[in-house]
Amino acid sequence: MHIGIDLGSRNVKMAIKEDGELKFLLFDTVSFYRKYGKLVDGELVVDFSAIGLKEIAKIVSTGYGRQAVKIKGGEEIPEIRAHALGAVYQTGLLDFTLLDLGGQDSKVVLVRKGKLIDFLTNDKCAASTGRYLENMASVLKISLDELGNFYENPVELSSTCAIFGETELLGKVVEGYSLEQLAAGVNYTIFKRIAPMLKKLFSPKVVFTGGVAYSRALKHIIEKELEVEVVIPREPQFNGAIGCLKYGGGL
C-alpha cells in the first residue's frame, strides 16, 4: 500500500493505492488530529491502523504552508511540488498554469514541459480562499454549492478583505440587490484577488484545483475574463495527495 497525504488547513486528504485500486479519504483537519494524530519530537505520529490502513510500503506527505509537519516514518515534500505533480498526472498536460484555491490559501504555479518553473502564493489573507466563500455563503444563507452557480450581473464589491467584505455585503443586501447579483459579486471578488497572479504567470490553459474548483461560477469567470481554457481534473480536492502518491512511486 502506498499513501499520499495532504495535511490541509481545513481537511486532511489521502490518496491510497492498494492492489491496483486507487481510493480517497477525506477528514476534517481538527478531527483527524484529535482522533489519529499525535506530535512526538516534532513529527506527527499517525495511527494508520485505526483508520484501517495496514501493510504500508510508502508514505509521502505535504502540508499547508509553514505549518507543515513531517509524518513519522514518511517522507515530506513541498506543497507546491506536490500540487504540480498531481496536476500533471491528472490532466496529462505539460504546459499550463496551476491555480489551487484551498481553505485558507491560494497558489498559482507555472508549469512548463511538466516541470515547476515559478509560483506565487497568498497565505496571509483569507479573501481569495474557501474560508471567504464559506463566510459569504453564510451571510447570504445559501450553501457553497448554490453560491457557485452565479456569475451574471454581479454587484460591485470593492472590499477584498474577508472581514470587511462581510460588512459590505450586508450593506448591499440592505440596498435591495438580488441574491443572484450578490452571489455573483462574491465570486467576482475572488477573481479580482487571483487575477494578478494568473496574469503574471499566464498560460492559455489553467488547471484549477482545490475545494474551490467545484465552483462553476469561478470557472466561467476565469475563462471569460482571461480568455483561457480552464481544466478541472477529476479529483481537484485530492490533487496534492495524488502528487504525493506519484512522487512516492504509487502511481
From TrEMBL:
CDD domains: ASKHA_NBD_YjiL-like. Residues 3-245 form the ATPase BadF/BadG/BcrA/BcrD type domain. Its cofactor is [4Fe-4S] cluster. Keywords: Iron, Iron-sulfur, Metal-binding. It comes from the Bacteria. SUPFAM superfamilies: Actin-like ATPase domain (SSF53067). Transmembrane segments: none annotated. GO terms for molecular function: iron-sulfur cluster binding; metal ion binding. This is Putative CoA-substrate-specific enzyme activase. It comes from Carboxydothermus pertinax.
